[in-house]
Specification:
Elements lengths: L3 E7 L4 E7 L1 H11 L3 H21 L5 E7 L6 E7 L4 E5 L8 E3 L2 E2 L1 H5 L4 E7 L6 E6 L6 H11 L4 E9 L5 E11 L6 H13 L2 H6 L4 H9 L4 E8 L8 H9 L3 H9 L4 E4 L6 E4 L1 H10 L1
Antiparallel strand pairs: 1-2, 1-12, 2-11, 3-4, 3-8, 4-5, 6-7, 8-9, 10-11, 13-14
């Protein structure tokens, strides 16, 4: 079943909503990283959030980078989304110990940590990217995304994320939603949405029940109603290429490339976002030197 996200608005036009089913892209990211259960849950939540945030930009050829540094055992999480919502990412330490809040419930906050920041870098195809950063609230990522929008972009937001990893470390369900109040929204809407969020419950439980992104938004928004504006398939997608790797190698400079060539061995370069390996022979390196 393919991953997809839906965007829409409540029928009164005051609330912007997006929800996603992201199991396959989380599975792919975890496979590439070789992550253990806690790392998969944390990384999966970040990928899910990044996909929704990237899609909400709606800037052709733009991108959005979500970086989380919490001081926990997973280290740094980096996720990059294109303007559609296709994502890629990596973590510093994909193999972390199993930590549970209680049996069967992974402790993502302990894996990520709270002594750090969440940073968003938006490439809007302008001269300089927009960079916003806030301190982490809980390390659970959904709460931290919510806090980021409120503090850095002054947009009242609710973000909920869920990734279920079984005892065989396989991703069973993954997804989430992101809800934002638009300017001019009446105060009473906040109470209605908070009540809806409480009534709907955890994202993971809803996904386990087979609920679609449309179902989830319907449960959360309740009698406010939702008008769905767009449905988009999304996936784990890396944009690496031999040309980009070649440019990166040239940037190393003549001295370092000469050392690589003189070793006389093939020089493999592995993309940090995917499992593609680009191999350069000594002759390839010599050809790069001729371009400098």
């Amino acid at each position: 079943m393919k991953d997809y996200l839906v965007r829409g608005m409540t029928m009164d036009g005051f609330v912007k909503v997006v929800a996603i089913r992201s199991r396959e892209l989380v599975r792919r990211g975890a496979q590439i990283q070789g992550s253990t259960a806690n790392a998969t849950a944390a990384f999966g939540r970040a990928l899910t959030a990044a996909s929704m945030m990237g899609n909400m930009q709606k800037v052709d050829n733009g991108s959005m980078t979500l970086q989380i540094k919490g001081g926990g055992p997973i280290g740094t999480i980096v996720c990059v989304s294109d303007a559609v919502g296709n994502v890629r990412g990596y973590v510093t330490n994909p193999v972390v110990p199993l930590v549970e809040k209680y049996p069967g419930k992974l402790d993502v906050g302990a894996t990520v940590g709270t002594a750090g920041t969440l940073t968003v870098i938006r490439d809007l195809q302008m001269k300089e990217p927009y960079i916003g950063s806030t301190e982490l609230v809980s390390g659970e990522i959904g709460d931290d995304v919510t806090a980021y929008f409120a503090r850095s972009e002054q947009v009242p937001t609710a973000c909920a994320l869920g990734v279920l990893v079984d005892r065989q470390q396989q991703v069973q369900v993954a997804g989430g939603y992101l809800i934002q109040l638009l300017p001019g929204a009446p105060e009473e809407l906040v109470d209605k949405l908070e009540a809806g969020i409480q009534r709907a419950g955890a994202v993971t439980a809803m996904l386990e029940q087979g609920m679609t992104p449309e179902d989830i938004l319907g449960a959360v928004c309740g009698d406010l109603g939702v008008v769905f504006l767009e449905t988009t398939e999304v996936s784990y997608k890396c944009y690496c290429s031999r040309e980009r790797v070649t440019a990166a190698l040239i940037s190393l400079g003549r001295e370092e490339l000469t050392q690589i060539m003189e070793e006389g061995k093939p020089f493999p370069v592995e993309c940090q976002f995917c499992d593609t390996v680009y191999e350069f022979t000594p002759k390839d390196i010599e050809a790069l030197l001729s371009q400098i």
